Amino acid sequence: MDAIHLKVLQAEMQAQWKAVEDVYTQVEARAAGLRPGDPASLESLAYQLHNLYNAVEDLFKIVTNAFENQVVDLSRWHAELLGRMRLEIEGVRPALVSAKLYPLLDELRAFRHFFRHAYGRRLQESRVQAILEQAREAKPLLERDVEQFLAQLEAGLRS
């Protein structure tokens, strides 16, 4: 990757990271307003958790479009994209997602899938709370992983 493409990638990733942070703010606002036994506040929180994974996935799309530019199995592309982000592709790019972050994001991805297809099903408050805690745990790890990813790309450009 040349210096210009790296700068474009950095700018796109930083803009998308801002979107991720904005959704995290919405998640925390909905969590603060959660009223036990109130389906509307639970659904509002679940919706923002759903949005959170979408924002993270858009970050991954930026990376895959800059390097690999393809996801083969369209029936499993969400899982494939996340899995690919934990791979270092020698001579191409470092891994973006660490081993510690991956299972947290995979749970968030699975919840997003459930939420999108749960027509007429009631959300379980305990499940949404568990996903909220995983999302909170993931935030500093994701921020660290994104920073390390960009630093490794920059270091590779200098060498």
The largest β sheet comes out as: none
CATH A-level architecture: Up-down Bundle
Total individual domains: 1
Distance between the termini: 12 Å
How much of the sequence is in beta strands?
A: under 5%
Number of helices: 5
Tell me the overall shape: elongated
Brief rundown of the structure:
With 159 residues, this protein is an all-alpha fold.
Can you describe this structure?
- The chain has one domain (3-158): Four Helix Bundle (Hemerythrin (Met), subunit A), CATH 1.20.120.
- It is 73% helix and 0% strand.
- It is mainly alpha-helical and 159 residues long.
Keywords, please?
159 residues; Four Helix Bundle (Hemerythrin (Met), subunit A); 73% helix
SSE arrangement:
Blueprint: H1 3-32, H2 39-66, H3 77-85, H4 102-116, H5 125-158
Helix pairs in contact: 1-2, 1-5, 2-3, 2-4, 2-5, 3-4, 4-5
